[in-house]
Design brief:
Strand order of the largest sheet: 2-1-5-3-4
Low-confidence stretches: none
Helix content: 10-25%
Radius of gyration: 13 Å
CATH class: Alpha Beta
Mean pLDDT: 91
Structural class: alpha+beta
Number of strands: 5
Oligomer: single chain
CATH architecture: Roll
Largest sheet: 5 strands, mixed
Number of domains: 1
């Protein structure tokens, strides 16, 4: 099970509280990746489609960041394997809304 932490506004949109747990291995034989986690998240919570990634390009939205094991994974390939501690459920995959301005 993958633990996913969503920012407050996405938790409200998805009608969840706390962390979301996702079963992402199923019939998938390859490594657990950002793409697989986000595909699973959007399939389970279709109201999140387009909020984290662009619906057409699949690219991360500009003000959304991904973290795991105290590392910024935002600019990693969406097909790079996630850290083993995330895959084992020991650490969460964190989706964070970034802010800009002055």
């Amino acid at each position: 099970m993958i633990r996913v932490v969503l920012p407050a506004h996405l938790k409200n949109l998805a009608h969840v509280t706390g962390q979301v747990t996702l079963e992402v291995t199923g019939s998938h034989a390859g490594p657990v990746t950002q793409r697989l986690v986000l595909d699973t998240l959007e399939a389970r919570y279709p109201m999140l489609l387009g909020t984290i990634r662009d619906r057409h390009s699949g690219k991360r939205r500009a003000f959304v960041r991904f973290y795991a094991c105290e590392e910024d994974l935002s600019n990693e390939s969406p097909d790079a394997p996630l850290p083993e501690r995330v895959v084992a459920g020991e650490e969460p995959f964190i989706i964070l809304g970034a802010m800009a301005g002055g």
